[in-house]
Design goal:
By secondary structure, the chain is an alpha/beta fold. It has helices spanning 2-16, 40-60, 82-94, 106-114; strands at 24-33, 63-64, 67-77, 99-102. It is 48% helix and 22% strand.
Length: 122
């Protein structure tokens, strides 16, 4: 769990290092895993672990660039399905998350990681 929290903090710091204009930085962290279907219990456990890490970070009052960071978890269900996993990954990219905890299994991780992901300019 400590490794995941360190990864989340590092990703957040890298993403928001240049944007210091807000008093409170909102850092979006994605989670994607099977929260429905045959292995939903594994995905739900994984998501709950990510939520606990986010809650711990927010309770510590982490500062990034002199600003208080507020971490938010955006969770998506891939149902263990490659097509749904790819769609979930794209949704998180479009939401501009700083990092992602997931996918849970290679059947969704590989397809979701091989498709180019770019968000249209805002």
């Amino acid at each position: 769990m400590q490794v995941k929290m360190n990864v989340i903090v590092a990703a957040a710091a890298a993403l928001v290092a240049g944007s210091l204009q807000a008093q409170e930085l909102v850092v979006k962290i994605g989670h994607v895993g099977p929260t429905s279907g045959g292995i939903a219990h594994l995905g739900k456990d994984n998501e709950n672990g990510a939520r606990m890490a986010i809650d711990e970070l927010n309770a510590k009052g982490v500062m990034i660039g002199g600003k208080k960071a507020k971490f938010e978890l955006l969770a998506e269900d891939d149902a263990g399905d490659p097509k749904q996993g790819t769609a979930a990954a794209q949704k998180l990219v479009d939401s501009k998350v700083a990092g992602v905890v997931g996918h849970l299994n290679s059947g969704t991780s590989i397809p979701a990681s091989t498709r180019p992901r770019t968000s249209p300019p805002s």
